[in-house]
Write the structure tokens for this entry.
Amino acid sequence: MSRVLEVADLRVSFPIAVGGRVQPVDGVSFSLQRGETLALVGESGCGKSLTSLALLRLVPPPGRIESGSTIRLGDIDLLSLQGEALRRVRGRRIGMIFQDPMTSLNPVFRVGDQIAEGVRAHFPVSRREARDRALHLLAEVGIPDPAARLDSYPHQLSGGMRQRVMIAIALAAEPEILIADEPTTALDVTVQAQILEVLDRLQASHGMAVLLITHDLGIVAGRADRVAVMYAGQIVEEAPTPELFAHPSHPYTQGLFASVPRLTGPVGRLTPIKGSVPPPGAWPGGCRFRPRCPIVHPRSEEMPPLLDAGADHRMRCWLAADQSATVR
Ligand SMILES: Nc1ncnc2c1ncn2[C@@H]1O[C@H](COP(=O)(O)OP(=O)(O)OP(=O)(O)O)[C@@H](O)[C@H]1O
Ligand SMILES: [Mg+2]
């Protein structure tokens, strides 16, 4: 397999009112292979979106990517690119779709023109060819009667249809990597399933790598090849999806699973993880999950590194090294 993206020790910081900076993304490392889907999972505020924005160098100022971070796209060092070279990567090599298509679509232009624009931004084709390509893309993302829909304005489409248009725009550039940040959160469950099915199909036919960002473990199973679980700015567990689902090992990941409703088996009470993710700047020293963790480990006041926890499975928890913990 060939590696299309490598992220190492990624750190994103923001200044805070009392002086100094906080680091909502704090030493994140992962890689993406061609055609692979990696799910980045975690509760609200753990740093998923900032991680994905950093990959496009779109961290809003005064936020910044700290020096020492590495983002490599193939053999390109993304953090050294400027101006035109950076714009050529954005959209063209890494595409992105967001949670809310209405904020990304331009309300005053017809969707066909917006897709054709996307095609022409990246390929030297005529208007006619760009429009044909837009028509083909609308059909590919499963929009019924695509020829008629070319002339629709965004407000004339349903939420699910708008999200399909966003996918068509992202695909117009034929990117190697697609970042999908909570692509279905705003949609109802049926439409959600349809959009995810479209993404699966397109990924298979285009061979893209996908970074799927979600707080919903339910959409990860059967879709992602690997899962990275984030907590308080760090990856705390990473494994191939079947392995993670069979043996969730970090107490935080176990907590996430315990709070997912199940349709099969005995109906149990959902056990949410107590408390909430503290904001950056309020993280405890040592293990950041310590105040919420159901177990007490003698080393919890030291920050655990990512430790081996089985086959191709790593977790940031001392339990991987030493089981001498007590249950609270
Ligand atoms: N522009 C910004 N300025 C200051 N802090 C920010 C900014 N954007 C994000 N943050 C902070 O960084 C942390 C991580 O934010 P991020 O948006 O990456 O979380 P997330 O995991 O995507 O959450 P969600 O599931 O709610 O989308 C949060 O505490 C957030 O408040
Ligand atoms: Mg987010």
Summary: The mean pLDDT is 92. The chain has ten helices and 15 strands.
